[in-house]
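Page 42, continued from yesterday. The earlier attempt failed because a stray header line got pasted into the input along with the sequence. Redoing it now with the clean sequence only.
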Amino acid sequence: EVQLVESGGGLVQAGGSLRLSCAASGFTFDDYAIGWFRQAPGKEREGVSCISSSDGSTYYANSVKGRFTISSDNAKNTVYLQMNSLKPEDTAVYYCAADFMSCHANMDYWGKGTLVTVSS
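This time it went through. Structure tokens are written below.
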């Protein structure tokens, strides 16, 4: 059974940092791309960042470039999202998702999400 479990969300003041974790199981981690997506209240879900577990290539949305860093620990089947210089507009439920080889809007597997709240 495929499982993606997010952790690390919480309440932080603007300018602060959080690190999200996504623990994956039930599939061959090295063959998959893992992405972070977020959905704010009343808004559509958007892609935030993606990493290919096979070659480490990464993608960032323009809104988070220079502030967020995605990384992967293949030995632990875990992907991290380090979020620095957080802004109130980063407030959202953050989901990790997995799909074979690449990230896209309709990933095969999704976690249940973790809430990030950034206060001004």
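Notes: The first strand starts at residue 3 and ends at 7.
Reminder to self: strip header lines before submitting.
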